[in-house]
Structure formats: C-alpha cells, structure tokens
Amino acid sequence: MGACALILLVLPTTAQSQTQAQLGAQLTRHLSTMKKDRQVLRFLQNHRWLLSDPRFAASAKRQLRAHTLSLARTQNKAAAARRALERRKQVRRLAALQAATPSVAICHVFGSYCQQALAVSRCESGLQTTAQNGQYLGLFQMGSNERRLFGHGSTALEQVKAAHRYFVASGRDWSPWSCKPWR
Fold it and tell me: Tell me: domain 102-169, CATH 3.40.50, correct?
C-alpha cells in the first residue's frame, strides 16, 4: 500500500504538473475540437430538414446531441487550460519580480511615481536592500514603527511594497522621508 501511495505522489496528475508546452498543446487540441463541433452544429442548423426527415432524423439528432455535449465539455476544458496557463504566467512573472533589481521593483510598484521613488531610494539607501542606519533599514530606510505598520522584507519587492503602502498612507507627498525627489 505504501508503494502505491508513493507512485501516486510521484505521477503527475494535475494541470499544475504539466509543462507550459503541454498545456499549450492541450489548449490547441481543445480549440480544434470546438471548431469541429461548431461546424457540425452549424451544418445541422443550416440543414434543419435532416432532423425531421425520417430517413436521417435519428442519426442527425444523435449528432446534434453528441456535438452539443462535446462542445460544452470541451469549452470547460479549454477554459481550465487557459486558467492554468495564466496561473503559470503569473507565477513566472512574480518569481521574476521577486528576484528583480531594486530599480525594476520600484518602477513596477510605484508606476507613475517611479522616477520620484528612485530618487528617494537612491538618496536614502543608494538602492541597497541591506542599507542600515540605526533603526532605519532597507531601500527606503523605514524605521521600526513604520516597518511594523507597513511591513518589510529581505527582497527589494517586499521593501518597495511596504514603502508604497507608507507613501499612499502619507498622501503621496514624500513627507515621511528626509530625502525628497526634487533635491
């Protein structure tokens, strides 16, 4: 029984364990199947007489039912494959952002305030995540109380998100920092 459980754990059984290429191929197959189902359904809609002609009615109704069900099932599968692909993309983007340089993280989080935030961080810490001046730490040299309220972390992204929360809470005017972007 233990060996069976081990095998079940090792075997890939979910969409999460599939590679992006496998998910893409799966989505392509689903889209192809949906196209064929729609073609058959469109044909039967344009040739409604097949559904009432005694010679073809049974077969036409079977095809109508089969392709209607197939289309619904395949649409659900395609939607699941799209969601799985999107989740993989988001995970990759987040992983890349977690490892991003301070400048990239600052511009990503601060958006239109990017240049101002870069100037403040450059002045406060020299864009160093490990910068320390007494109780003040990180890219934006936030004090212990501010870190408690707005957060902190070891990565540039975590520090920038915390500084952004502080920036927004302070009215987006850079008043909490001794370094100002216009100096």
Answer: no
